[in-house]
Amino acid sequence: MSEEEPLFEDVKFHQKRKHGKWSEVEAPVMDVPVADTHAHVQMMRDPALSLARAGAHNVGFVEAIVDPTDDGFTTFSALPGWLMEAAGDLRRLTSEPDQEVHDCVVAVPRVRIAAGVHPHNAKDYTPALEDDLRAHLADRRVSAVGEIGLDYHYDLSPRDVQQEVFRAQIRLAKEAGLPVCLHLREAHDDGFAILSEEGFPEAGTLLHCFNLDGAEVARWVEAGCFIALGGQLTYKKFDALREAARLVPRDRLLTETDAPYMTPEPLRGTLCGPEHVIWTADALCAVLGADTPEERASLLAQLYENALGLLDRAPTAWQREHVHA
Predict the structure, then answer these.
(1) The pTM is what?
(2) Which of 46, 108, 198, 315 sits a CA distance of 20 to 30 A from 276?
């Protein structure tokens, strides 16, 4: 990512060249809606514009990630304004004569929220924060607890604290009847063990940013987890990840961005937005051999159905009971 990257107010994709120049890159066309199941929308430089650009590329659903220790709960209050502004941006951008927008694209994405404390910030987890998080989980826009888990790469919180907070949030998700969105880095063994001990939530488990091999993916699939793939699927050195993707049942696969991070090729090195999920979806079609228009449409429809089935459900019984608390 570059701080010098312009904020392009169009629906095109731009690749950085030498001497501060930028060139347009032809984007894959999504004839079927796609989903970004993990985007830090509040971290975008212009959240409304990012959502509008996503809508212009037929991204129909976005899961916005909220960590109260980093961002507070700003997304909850700001989201209605972002969506209203995005609708205006989308009308403006798609009405300009030089913008090539596919005919089927008509709407700003539907946005739901996942809220939870990242393992980096586990040291900041307190009973008061847990109470505040529980209260916000009653918001009917919330559809998951996350991203939660363990990160042994940076160890920004002590490992025993990460484990304790991970367990606490698994229990909170189960209390609320919500799925969990996992962040596990160099900690898959401990993460799997903790989930096995606590019990995988009946509402579902999403393994965010999976980047390992088929041997690792097998036990998560067997446990009933969804596997979310992002920009790394497009990186040249990740052959093992592409092979792992082929081993996952199609009804357990999800697409994501982790925006503003992990931009897919051929745009790596630029800021990532939820609209970039189309590049990962396009790559996944190639990896899984969905070569004909019919096969491609069928696969993309399955991926979208997976996302909505997990993350765009009706409010849980717990949420209905606690919404006015």
Answers:
(1) 0.96
(2) 315
Q: What is the DSSP string of 200-242?
A: --TT-EEETT--S-HHHHHHHHHTT-EEEE-GGGGSTT-HHHH
- Which helix (H) or strand (E) segment holds residue 83: the answer is helix 74-95
* b/e map 279-302, b = 16+ CB within 10 Å: bbbbbbbebbebeeeeebeebbeb
Are 155 and 122 in contact by the 8 Å Cβ rule? The answer is no
State the sign of the Cα–Cα–Cα–Cα dihedral 244, 246, 247, 249.
Answer: positive
Q: How many residues belong to the chain?
A: 325
Q: Which of 31, 50, 52, 28 is nearest to 40 (CA)?
A: 50
pLDDT of residue 66: 98
CA 212, chain centre distance (Å)? 18
- Mean pLDDT over 285-302 rounds to 97
**Tokens standing for residue 322:** 């606690």
Answer whether 194's CB lies under 8 Å from 166's CB. Answer: yes
